[in-house]
Amino acid sequence: MAILVLLAGINAALNSQWYARQQQIAAPEAEYDVVIRRDSWGVPHIMGETDADAAFGLAYAHAEDDFATLQEVLASSHGRLGELTGAEGAAQDYAFHLFDARSDVEEGYERELSTDTRALIEAYADGINLYASEHPEELRLRGLFPVTGQDVATGFAFTSPFFYGIDRTLSALAASEDPPRNGEPPDERGSNAFAVAPSRDPDGETKLIVNSHQPWTGPVAWYEAHVTSAEGLDMMGGLFPGAPVPLLGHNQRIGWANTVNRPDLVDVYELTLNEDGDAYRFDGEWRELESRRIWLHVRMGPFVLPIPETVYRSIHGPVMVNDNGAFAIRYAGIGEIRQVEQYYRLTRAQNFDEWLEVMRMQAIPATNFIYADADGRIARLYNARFPARAEGFDWRGILPGDTSDTLWTDDASFEAMPFLVDPASGYLFDTNSTPCIATAEADNLDCASFSPLLGVESNETNRMYRAAELLAAIEGMIGWPELRRIKYDAGYSRQSAAGSYFRQIASLNFEPGDLSDAQQLLASWDWTLDGEGSADALAALVLRHIMMAAYRGDALPDPRETFEGAVRFLIETHGRLDVPLGDVLRLRRGETDLPITGGPDALRAIYWGDPEDGAHAAWAGDSYIMEIGWDAGGRVYSRSVHQFGTATTRPDSPHYADQAPMFAAMEMKDTWFAAADLAPNVACEYRPGEAGRTPDGEPCEY
Asked: Are 22 and 315 in contact (CB under 8 A)?
């Protein structure tokens, strides 16, 4: 039987992509009234009669630019990512089945999501289906289409816990290790945000900087769009594949940035099983341990192999069984499916009170919101759906799973969240750190006032230190030039993990030679990776190994080994120590190959991978950046830049990497948010499924 299953999997693998491309996907029956206008940077400005029309157009435009990633996102909402991406995707598929978010959506779709939200996401699905019906040669997975509104809602519900670090808990339990005592994300997810009130602006303006740090490709890489409708939707900003509206940015009256926060929102319980392993003890009784057989389909080269697994569930939530026993997981927002509705409602809010009312939904279980608006208000909300936990337990450790005393079923009140509004200093910042260092020292929140049961993080990043130091040093007004210098700062604070680590390197003893020379060179470093110092490359190679470990709370690597490895790399690949930073750190996309500055956990955040040809290619960090302002009269304007361009997976497009030179040079473009500003900058106009035309009436393709 096993060999038959294996042969069936191999046969399916050999034929799956061929069959995928032979599918005849029917075009949606519903009709939508929408126009897509591409500006000269290729950014889509969607104009729909209704909000649903606009979502349909957004989906179609995004598919034109990145249909490959959209298919991966949709595959993950069916637990089929492993068929496309192999073992890594299959691990996510296991989590998909473990969480069973699909069942939550199917059960609550019509009851919990409003009629207009369902219309929005169903129209979005139709936009993707239209593109799929027109381009069967691009299909990657048999049976994925047509997609539905439930697929869109499932994607939001399933991925939400990963933004506050549940993946580290899953990884530890899968490896039969103790879960982390907090929820740090395992990779370079981060972000900065800044808001300045009119009281600190030389022209009485309100300013907001959106500066998310994300991977540059894949399902959580930013895409820029402007979505409008005759019903009042008018939102410009960034979104991930699968989102029917921008997730951050601005409308006419309000704007917000998001940064990852890391409160303790995941609890792990050790279960006491019976001898057969099919029941667990709870409040003195035995309860059935629910189990389901699932199949993970894992691509291995040209093959897709079916692998059987079993997932379990207790009253607490999903259960993982490993070498140490059975462990249940309960997490913030478990069973919640309204994330997409809250984001949609946020785009329609027009003032602080309306925005605040939407935030009270708490469907988005984590992520900081940094807010600003046309009325001059600024705010920082440490958004988290804190569990209502009982006193007397170590909530950071493994909890007893045999008692209802540890089983929380309610959430702490909205008012329990750290919330800073309109500080007297006139400015706010956020850098993935404690919410109690976010403005001038005298105006910061008092962390002692928050219950330890909430699990508010106390982490301090280099970016936090730098932002606090640089903003505190400005005694007068904070105009755009001053704010940009801070946002693009590539410096490191001696208060950060880099300070003590570099002191350890300075104390090492080396014989005369390359290592002692390098030690002297590093001692001369000016503590900024701006590309101007002769020690920048050496410092960057050391910092690469320590700043993310410090961010996660992991032990730092041995200073001698780190330093010797950096020196060895420079000597072996460049033959010298004082290599310009731009020769070592590059922005590469297609034929574009540019020097870039910045580094890990710098305000100008840049992260890079393994070396290629003696250089490291950046792959994450600063990505979509947006400057938003409201002048003294309340009129909004904005500028933005993307690390590559709009057509993120279309190498033949002129917009594949056309923004990369601007990004590397720390420059920005106008978003042309206002209709009058956009009109002279429209390069192509069309309706989904129809041929496009330039303003002169000439054909244009997109």
From this structure: no
Q: Are 240 and 642 in contact (CB under 8 A)?
A: no
Please enumerate in sequence order all residues whose Cβ is within 8 A of that of 285, keeping only pairs 6 or more positions apart, or say none: none
Phi, psi of 329 (to 5 degrees): -125, 130
Contacts of 528 (CB under 8 A, 6+ apart): 489, 490, 491, 492, 536
- Total count of residues recorded for the chain: 702
Using alpha carbons, select from 140, 107, 110, 134 the residue that is nearest to residue 122. 110
User: Which residue has tokens 């298919």?
Assistant: 71
Amino acid at 408: W
* DSSP-H helix ranges across 507-578: 514-523, 536-552, 559-574
CA–CA dist 133, 146 (Å, integer): 9
Could you tell me if residue 575 is left (phi over 0), alpha (psi between -120 and 50 degrees) or otherwise beta?
Answer: left
Burial 464-474 (b: 16+ CB within 10 A, else e): bbbbbebbeee
Block means of pLDDT (10 residues each) for the chain, 702 residues, are: 44 50 80 98 98 98 98 98 96 98 97 98 98 97 97 97 93 93 55 98 98 96 98 98 98 97 96 97 98 97 95 98 98 97 98 98 97 98 98 96 98 97 98 96 96 93 97 97 98 96 97 96 98 97 92 89 97 96 97 97 96 94 97 97 96 97 98 97 96 92 76
Amino acid at site 53:
D
Return the structure tokens found at 431: 């850098």
Task: Determine the pLDDT at residue 153.
Answer: 98
Q: Answer yes or no: are the C-beta atoms of 462 and 427 closer than 8 Å.
A: no
Alpha-carbon distance of 342 to 245, in angstroms, equals: 11
Q: Give me 509's structure tokens.
A: 């003893």
Q: How far apart are CA 676 and CA 48, in angstroms?
A: 17
Burial of 673 (0-12, 13-18, 19+ CB in 10 A): buried
Question: Which element (helix H / strand E) includes 466?
Answer: helix 462-472
The closest alpha carbon to 329, from 476, 174, 469, 203, belongs to 174
How confident is the model at residue 25, as a pLDDT?
87
Per the CB < 8 A criterion, the answer to whether 579 and 506 are in contact is no
> What are the backbone angles phi and psi of residue 491, rounded to the nearest 5°?
-90, 165
* pLDDT tens, position by position, 335-369: 999 999 999 999 999 999 999 999 999 999 999 99
Copy the structure tokens of residue 184: 């740090």
Largest distance between two CA atoms of the chain: 78
The pLDDT value recorded for residue 5 is: 44
Burial class (CB in 10 A: 0-12, 13-18, 19+), 138: middle
Handedness of CA 386, 392, 395, 398 (dihedral sign): negative
From 421, 383, 411, select the one nearest 263 (Cα to Cα): 383
Nearest by Cα to 663 from 678, 645, 648: 645
